[in-house]
């Protein structure tokens, strides 16, 4: 299997947008808008095409990292930095290290281009392993003065992001991703037909994860190290094919199950039917507790999906 990392060409545009659309569809909301941002960003003044890359597997677009200019504002100045998004890999090509390659091969290019740092909104359980730190460590916030866990940065020069009173301002291209623009793009493009569904852990979905108390579940992709360790325990000769199908399917989603802060197993749901359905629960706890936990988890899930 041949993996190639290179700049995107015009003939790749549609295939890239479809890949991005598949990767994010129904993840944070029913449907997605990330492919619209890609479409808009290519024509925006903040776009950094020389730093942005796609990954191809045997000639098929399998991943993307898109860089653009963003800004840190203070009372008396505005500094230009870099940001990226989306960074994504097609479901079919997960667990091949493509996302890591896209990051590891482009961050040095951003530094060589003279940027003082990179700021992102991203998964706080994923990006720190590449060197990203919470914005709080730099004394930075968003434009409203918030320092969410998802707001992270990486300095590319000494004290590149230690900016007194600095506030992170995203590219204006974000504001162009409206419902009207999405509808126009969807109507004009021959994208594959995907079904919008609600699933646990979407921003608009009420679920047991909201309180983070007792048992709750989180997207496996939000806790990659924990999920990988649990995955290895269940990845036996009898379950390997099934688990790989779970990980790579657009209609089947794995979650890490927690009790308070302790990971206790994996839950798998399917959205192939009208409402989300639990397909599997794998628990890393003593057998005498397993039945009662499964009953409690299933009962709560069914109550939320009436």
TrEMBL record:
Residue ranges annotated for the N-acetyltransferase domain, each copy included: 3-157
Keywords: Acyltransferase, Transferase
Pfam families the UniProt entry points to: Acetyltransf_1
Coiled-coil stretches noted in the UniProt entry, renumbered to this chain: none
InterPro entries: Acyl_CoA_acyltransferase, GNAT_dom
One function term, GO molecular function aspect: acyltransferase activity, transferring groups other than amino-acyl groups
Protein name per its UniProtKB record: Acyl-CoA N-acyltransferase
Provenance organism: Piromyces finnis
């Amino acid at each position: 299997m041949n993996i190639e990392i290179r700049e995107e060409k015009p003939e790749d545009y549609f295939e890239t947008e479809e890949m991005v659309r598949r990767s994010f569809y129904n993840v944070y909301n029913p449907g997605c808008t990330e492919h619209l941002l890609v479409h808009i960003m290519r024509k925006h003044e903040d776009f950094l095409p020389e730093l942005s890359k796609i990954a191809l597997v045997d000639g098929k677009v399998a991943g993307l990292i898109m860089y653009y200019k963003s800004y840190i504002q203070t009372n008396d100045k505005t500094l230009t930095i870099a940001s990226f998004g989306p960074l994504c890999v097609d479901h079919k090509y997960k667990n091949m290290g493509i996302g890591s390659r896209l990051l590891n091969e482009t961050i040095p290019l951003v530094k060589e281009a003279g940027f003082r740092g990179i700021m992102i909104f991203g998964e706080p359980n994923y990006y720190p392993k590449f060197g990203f730190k919470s914005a709080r460590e730099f004394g930075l916030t968003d434009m409203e003065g918030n320092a969410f866990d998802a707001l992270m940065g990486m300095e590319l020069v000494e004290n590149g992001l230690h900016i007194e009173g600095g506030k992170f301002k995203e590219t204006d291209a974000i504001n162009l991703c409206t419902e009207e623009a999405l509808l126009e793009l969807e109507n004009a493009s021959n994208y594959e037909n995907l079904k919008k569904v609600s699933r646990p852990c979407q921003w608009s979905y009420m679920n047991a994860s909201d309180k983070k108390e007792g048992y709750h579940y989180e997207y496996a992709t939000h806790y990659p190290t924990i999920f990988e360790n649990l995955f290895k325990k269940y990845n036996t000769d009898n379950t390997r094919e099934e688990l790989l199908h779970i990980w790579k399917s657009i209609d089947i989603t794995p979650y890490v199950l927690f009790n308070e802060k302790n990971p206790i197993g994996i839950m798998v749901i399917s959205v192939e039917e009208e409402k989300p359905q639990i397909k599997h629960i794998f628990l890393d706890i003593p057998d005498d507790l397993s039945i009662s936990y499964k009953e409690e988890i299933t009962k709560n899930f069914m109550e939320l999906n009436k």
